[in-house]
From TrEMBL:
Alphabetical UniProt keywords: Cytoplasm, Magnesium, Metal-binding, Methyltransferase, Pantothenate biosynthesis, Transferase
A GO-annotated cellular component: cytoplasm
Active site: 181 (proton acceptor)
Residues annotated as signal peptide: none
GO MF annotation, one: magnesium ion binding
Protein name: 3-methyl-2-oxobutanoate hydroxymethyltransferase
SUPFAM superfamilies, A to Z: Phosphoenolpyruvate/pyruvate domain (SSF51621)
The keyword Cell wall biogenesis/degradation appears for this protein: no
Amino acid sequence: MTKKMTITSIKKSKGASKLVMITAYDALFARLLEPSCDIILVGDSLNMSFAGKGDTLSATLEQMIYHTNAVAQGAKSSFLICDMPFGTYINPDEALRNSIRVFQETTVDALKIEGGEDKAHIIEHLCSNGIAVCGHIGLLPQAVRSEGGYKVKGKSQEEQEQLIRDAKAVERAGAFCMVIEGVKADVAKEVAKSVSIPVIGIGAGKDVDGQVLVFSDMLGLFEEFTPKFVKKYMDGASLVKGAIKSYSDEVRSGEFPQDIHTY
Ligand SMILES: Nc1nc(=O)c2c([nH]1)NC[C@@H]1CN(c3ccc(C(=O)N[C@@H](CCC(=O)O)C(=O)O)cc3)CN21
Ligand SMILES: CC(C)C(=O)C(=O)O
Ligand SMILES: [Mg+2]
């Protein structure tokens, strides 16, 4: 990835190339991910993977702004999206006020909000005030408590029809793309076909317009999180633990530091 993507090139990518999105929470990883991805998402999953909490609900706007600024320092040529955290877009005015804060306090390119048909009026209000919005439909992590867990969507006829309505409402409201999470692959495929903006999947099969994963999941760093949709591209936890063990052993044995590490 050399030239930074724009709302226009992201929209145009549909049907031509798959979008690669990965989350990042700091400058260090943002710099490492940037060469191979189109979009970096500062996800509210940072409340779990970074802050160690049990779900995303207690992530704050201040946290999201802090991490977005860190990521922006590391990734100057990636399109940057920040999740609006739980409780920050409960009505159009609140949503716009909070979105403007993120836009003014960071260099983020777009914001992501969870919800379909029920959030279309919010997306519309943001879009008509200069905020680029990425939708998020299907499994909505911010609804984990009201839903009683993380539930894959699209299993019933009603859910399938609702997902199509959600995607169309998000598109009509002005979103430039959307994430579809935790949806049966055949249903996600139909959803992607039903709109003309890119639909980026996570746990939604291959027949969508791109994929997103949490970086710490795909690098095998987040050991306790092993849902079906994650592919571990490296065993990060073992590698890191092994390196730390070597350091520890060498400090204790006196093997580190050697002359080359010494002034
Ligand atoms: N590190 C991390 N990775 C993520 O992908 C992620 C987060 N955090 N935090 C926010 C949400 C929460 N996500 C989740 C969390 C759990 C399941 C889960 O337990 N899935 C079950 C399937 C449930 C069903 O069949 O209905 C699984 O076993 O895969 C799915 C998505 C995805 N998001
Ligand atoms: C899992 C992705 C889509 C997300 O919303 C997050 O990382 O918070
Ligand atoms: Mg999120």
